Amino acid sequence: MSAPATSVKNSPGFLAGGRAWLRKVLAKSPADPAVQRFVAFARAKWPRRRAGRDAVVLVNLFPVPASIFCYAYVANHLADRLDCRVEAFNFAKRTPPDTAKAYAAFGAECRLSSADAEKDRGKAEALADELFGGLRTKWDVVNLSVEGLLIGDQVYDTYLRNFNEPTVQLTDPRLRDTICEALLIYFAVKDYVARNKVECLLTDDFSYLYSGIITRVLFQAKVPVFLVLIGQPFHLLQLDPEHSGPGPDGFGHGYPSPVVARYYQYRTAFSRLSGEEKETALDKARHRLSARLAGEEDALVRMAASTYGVGGDRIFPADGPPRVLVMLHDFIDSPHGYRSILFPDFQEWIHFLLDHAQETPFEWYVKPHPASADTARTKMTAANRQALEKLQARYPKIHFLPHGTSNRQILEEGVNAMFTVHGTAGHEFAYSGIPVVNAGDNPHIAYPFNIHAASLDHYRECIRRADRLDVTMERRAIEEYFYMHYFHLAERHGAAVNPIDEKVAAAPDFGSRLGQADIFDDLIGGITPARERGVHEYLSRYFDTVGITKKL
C-alpha cells in the first residue's frame, strides 16, 4: 500500500524542530507571575546542578502546577539519593511554555522529546506504512508491536482520544499517522536509554503514547517506574510491568509486590493481615460502602453522589419480563486500560452485547456513562452522545435511560442482572444482591462476587441466561475488596506529611485549582521546616522499602 497523503510530519500540533527553536519560544514567552515566583523558589531551594553525573532521574513534563510542585521534591530527593542529574521528557503535542520553565527551575531541563526522533523519521515512516498496510482487523491494531514491544493498545487508545472516535477506522490515514507517531517516540526513547543510564522514571500516566511507550521501554530495561499521587494522603506508587493500565482512581494498579497487593492479588494481601486488622478493615468498608449506596457523597470513590441519589418517577413497569441493566463506558477513554478485554473496544462490546440481547425475551435497559453529559469535555462529550444516538437508532428494542438515572432507584425497582466491562458498579450492585457480568479484566477479578466472562461463548451464554445467573455474592468478600481497593495502599504506604499544605489539599476547590498557576503561591506558602522534614522522612522510608538504595 502506498503512503497516505497525510503524515505525522504534517499532522496538526505535532512537535517538530530542534531544541534551539524550543528555547527561542520559551525565552520570548512571559511567564505567569505565580510561575515566576515558583521559579525563584525552586532555583533557591534546589540550586545544585548535576550535569556531569552519568546517571539520570527522568521525569515527565506534566503541565499541572500541583504535580510539578510534588515532582520537584521527589525528583531531587532521588537525585541526592542516587547522586545523579534530573532531566525531563515531553512527547505531548501541546505543552504550555511555563511548564518547561517550572521544571527547569528545579533542575529538570527537557532533554527528550519528539524532536529527538527526527533523524529516524525515514525509518518510522516506512515501518508505519508497512504496519498500516497489514491491518485487517481491529485486533491487528491492538496487537501491533515494534522490536518485540507491544504498542498497539496504546496506538488504539491514543487514536480514540486524539480524534474523539468510538472505534478505529482501519483505512483512516490518521491511524497510520498515530502508528508513525508511536514509532518516532519509541526510537527517541530507545536512543536516549542507550546513551543515558536512567535510574528511575517519574510519570503522570502510562496508557497513551506520550507516557506509555517510555514506561514500557524502561520496564524492558529493568528501570523502576513511579507515579506521584498528590492527594490525601500523599504517596508514591511503583508500577508493575505485568500491568501498566489505568484504573478509575489510580489505586488499583501496579503495586510494588509483595509489600502492597496488585488488584488481582487483593485476596492474598488481605489474608496476610491479622485477625484484628481484618475486622477493623471490614468494619470501615462496611460503613463507607453502605453510606455510598444510601446516597451519601463520598470523595473516596470519586463519583457523583447523584449516582445513588433520590430517584424520580418510576423507571420500569411494575410487572413484565425480567429486566437487565447495561452500564455503558466512555467510548473515547482507554478501553485497553486493564490487562485484557474480550473486545477491541467499547463500541464492539456494546454491539455484541445488544445484538444478542435483543434476541432474548428480557427487557434490556442501557444507562449512559456520565461522559455523555460532561460539559467540561466538549469534544469527548459530543462524541459520546453521537455514539449513543447511533446505538438508539440501531437497537429500537432496547430501552435507553437518562444518564442521571439513580442507581439507587434502579436497585429499589429491581433488575435481574447488570452487564459492564469493568465498571465500579460491579461491587456496588453485587452488594445489593444483583448478579454482575464483566467483559474483561477488572478490579474485582480476584473475587467470585462477579462473573468474569472468560470467552465470547461464555459471555454469549451469560446474555442468554441473564434472568437466572448463578453467582456467589458474599457481602464480606465485597467489603474486603472495598477496603483493599480504596483504603489499603493509602493506609499502609501514605505519607504522614504532604508536600502540599493539608488545608490547601482539603479545600473544596482543590481539584479545580490543580492546574491553575496561582496555586503555586498557596503551595509555597504552606512550606515549613517541619513539613519538609516529614516529606524527606517519608521519601527515605519509601525508597528504602522498594529497594532504591542510596549511593555513598
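^ that was protein a. below is b, sequence first then the C-alpha cells
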Amino acid sequence: MDKSTSVLIVGAGPVGLCLALDLAWRGIDVTVVEERQPIGSISAKCNHVSSRTMETFRRLGIAAEVREAGLPGDYPHDVVFRTSGTGYEIGRLKIPCRNERFGATEGIDTDWPTPEPPHRVNQIFFEPILLRHALENPRITIHDGTRFEEFREEEDGVSVALRSSVTGETFEIRAQFLVGCDGGRSSVRRAMGASLHGDEVIQKVQSTFFRAPDLLQRLTPGPAWMSYLYTPERAGNLIAVDGQETWLLHNYLLPGEADFDVVDRDACLRLLLGVGADFSYEIIAREDWIGRRLVADRVRAGRAFICGDAAHLWVPYAGYGMNAGIADAMNISWLLGAHLGGWAPASILDAYEAERLPITDQVSRFAMSHAKGAIGERTSISPLIKEDSLAGEAERRRVGDAAAAFHQQQFACAGLNFGYFYTGSPIIAYDGEDAPAYSMGGYEPSTVPGCRVPHIWLADGRSLYDAMGRDYTLLRFDRNVDVTPMLRAAEACRVPLTLLDIDVDTVPPPYRHGLLLSRPDRHVAWRGD
C-alpha cells in the first residue's frame, strides 16, 4: 500500500469520487479510502444530478455517459400528483425525457442557461460510472475495507492513521492534505473538532427500495419519474428507478410516529400505492432517513477539510443534498490544485471556508423552508379528495394546483444552480455592486464579482464553458483593450491564464464590461474595462 500521497480523501461516495476525479484532472495524485468492502454496495437514495454537477461531468468528459444511464430514453421525467398510485391524477409538471432533453423548448424544465441541463437518474446507476473512471485513472488509488481512525498534523503534511476492516491491522498514510467526504457520521469531522448545529429533526421518512414488475401497469395511466401521493391518511412519494420494475417509495411519517420499525411498512406502501392483497413486491433495501438542517461550525482545521454530508445535512429538496456536496468538492479541488500545482500560496485555501460556509447555511434554509411548506401542504387534505363527486373534483383541483405551484420551484431550481454567489472571499476583487438576490427557483444572471459567470453560446456554436481554459480565463469583449500587461503579470506569477476573445453577434446584457476574469470554478474574480 502507498505510504504517501498528495491528497487523502476519506469516503468513496459520489462526493469523494468527484473530488478525486477532479483533482486527478488537475494533475494531482490522490488516494481514496473507503470503509465499505466492496465499494459497489450503493444506496438508492439520490435521484437527481443537478445542472452544475452535469457541467462538472462535462468538463471531466463523462456527462454523456451519465446521461445515458438510468431510465429508458423515452421514459417521461414528469412529476405527477396523484391521490394514490392507482388513484386520480390531479396535477403534472412536464419534464423532458432523456431523448428530448436538448430539443425541448416548452415547459418548466427547459431553456436552462447551460450546456448541461439536469438529469434524473438514481445513484445506483451513476455512482458505478464515477467509480469505474476513478479506478481506471492512474493518478487515483482506492483502498476499500479501510477505516479512518485519526490524523496528526505536522509542519508539511498530515499523518493519517487507518485500520483494515478485514484484518484489523493499523497503518499510516502521509498526505499533504486530508479531505473528509465520509457522510453525516463523519469521523474526519469529529477528529477536526468540528460539530453540527441546527435543527435535529424536520421530518422522518420511511423509505423502501423495492421490485414490483407489474406496478407500472397498475399505476394511473401516464408514467412519471416522480409521483407525489396524497391520501387523506398520509402522504408519500414514488420514484421510478429503472422505469420498468424497481421503485423507491418515501412514506412521510406522521406526528407521533417516532420509530421507523413500528410503522407498518407494508400497510403504508399498499395504502399509498392504492393496491390490495393481490399485489406482490420484493424489498431490495430499507433506505429510511431523517430530514435535518445541520451545518458544521467549521469545514477546515489546518490541512484537513470536510465536504458534503460531513459538513451539512438537510432535507434534499431539489436534489441539493449530494449536489451541494459535489459543489463543495469542486471548490476545494481547484484551490488545492492551485496550491499543489505551485502557482498559489497556501493562503488561497482560506477561501474554502469563507465561501462555502455561507452558501451552505443559505441552501440549508431554502431546503428547510421548502420542507416545512411541504409538511403543511400534506396536512390539509380532505377525505373528499377520493370522492367521485363535484366536491371531490373541486378538492382534487385545489390540491393539485397548489402542489404543482409549490413544487415547481424545486424541479426547475435555477436559483440553487446558478444564483448563489460568494461574498467576503479573500480571492475575489469586489467593486461595490451588490449581487442580485436569488430564490430556489429564480435568479438573475450577473457579472458582479463572486457570481457565476453567465453562460452564453459563442458565434461558432460552442459553449462558453467549453472554450474556457483549465484555470483562470480572461474574457475579452473588446479586442481594442490591450491586455498584454495582465498576461505578463500572470506569467510572472506563474498563474495559468487563458485569453478568450468573445465572438458573439450581440453581447448579452449581464456583460457590461470589456473584460472579465473567470476563476477555474467559473465564478467571477474581477471585471473591468
